[in-house]
Amino acid sequence: MEGEAGFREREEQSIDDLTQMSGIVLATGGGVIMRESNRNHLSARGIVVYLCTSVEQQLVRTARDKNRPLLQADNPEKILRDLFAVRDPLYRSIADIIIETDQHNPRWVVQELKKRIKDL
Ligand SMILES: Nc1ncnc2c1ncn2[C@@H]1O[C@H](COP(=O)(O)OP(=O)(O)O)[C@@H](O)[C@H]1O
Ligand SMILES: O=C(O)C1=C[C@@H](OP(=O)(O)O)[C@@H](O)[C@H](O)C1
């Protein structure tokens, strides 16, 4: 296995490649925000949307998910809290649009996002 370091290298290259395309929606992995080069590419080349979700709600939504390597641990709540503390300010620092999703279903989030993009 390549481990997280190898994954982050490939992720950085992919972000550089994909952010040069136009007319796409790019749903990144949550950890993309950690590297400065990713933050720069995303903020300079597109509209950045932060779908903000509380740790409590993240726990509900990921409870049965086996495909999130970082959460396959004894205490996913602590992991999510620690990640949120580091990442939330970084997401906010490059977001053009921030939408709180806790109380809303995906359909509402999409409608809200369409309005907010029009208003930019
Ligand atoms: N607004 C929402 N309301 C309810 N469930 C949601 C909402 N957004 C996402 N989910 C659910 O939460 C889980 C994680 O969503 P996902 O889009 O994979 O998040 P991310 O891409 O940020 O990791 C999925 O099961 C998804 O169906
Ligand atoms: O938060 C992270 O560091 C990661 C989240 C994953 O994406 P999702 O946010 O889609 O789960 C994926 O990029 C990788 O497992 C690392």
TrEMBL record:
A GO biological process held by the record: amino acid biosynthetic process
Record PROSITE patterns: SHIKIMATE_KINASE
Catalyzed reactions per annotation: shikimate + ATP = 3-phosphoshikimate + ADP + H(+)
Similarity section: Belongs to the shikimate kinase family.
E.C. code: 2.7.1.71
Enzyme class: transferase
UniProt keyword Nucleotide-binding present: yes
Pfam families on file: SKI
Organism (species): Thalassolituus oleivorans MIL-1
Keyword annotations of the record: Amino-acid biosynthesis, Aromatic amino acid biosynthesis, ATP-binding, Kinase, Nucleotide-binding, Transferase
Protein name: shikimate kinase
One Gene Ontology CC term in the entry: cytosol
Coiled coil feature spans: none
Associated pathway: Metabolic intermediate biosynthesis; chorismate biosynthesis; chorismate from D-erythrose 4-phosphate and phosphoenolpyruvate: step 5/7
Domain of life: Bacteria
Species classification: Bacteria, Pseudomonadati, Pseudomonadota, Gammaproteobacteria, Oceanospirillales
